[in-house]
């Protein structure tokens, strides 16, 4: 997992100065936890292969054109 998940010292300091120490720390910690969760999701991502063949985009266009051309 990437070690650079948190904010830099300067970013944390700017948050603390502009919105206060407690709120800045809380936001920085939240961002760090979110980044860690995103990294975990990326790491555990699984590609899904459809088991049942679906309708391809070409077929959808052909079917739509055929339906529009139907005469009742």
Features:
72 residues; mainly alpha; elongated
Could you walk me through the main structural features you see in this protein, from its secondary elements to its overall organization?
- 0% of the residues are buried.
- This protein has three helices and no strands.
- It is mainly alpha-helical and 72 residues long.
Number of helices: 3
Unreliable segments of 5+ consecutive residues: none
What string, H for helix and E for strand, traces the elements in order?
HHH
By secondary-structure content and strand pairing, the structural class works out as mainly alpha
> Could you report the average pLDDT, rounded to the nearest whole number?
77
Q: What is the 3D form?
A: elongated
The portion of residues forming beta strands comes to under 5%
User: What is the CA–CA distance across the termini?
Assistant: 61 Å
Total DSSP E strands:
0
Range of helix content = 55-70%
Q: For the report, how would you describe the main beta sheet?
A: none
Gyration radius over CA? 25 Å
Can I get a quick summary?
With 72 residues, the chain is an all-alpha fold. It has 3 helices and no strands. The longest helix is centred in the middle third of the chain and has 23 residues.
Topology (SSEs and partners):
Elements: H1 9-19, H2 21-43, H3 57-69
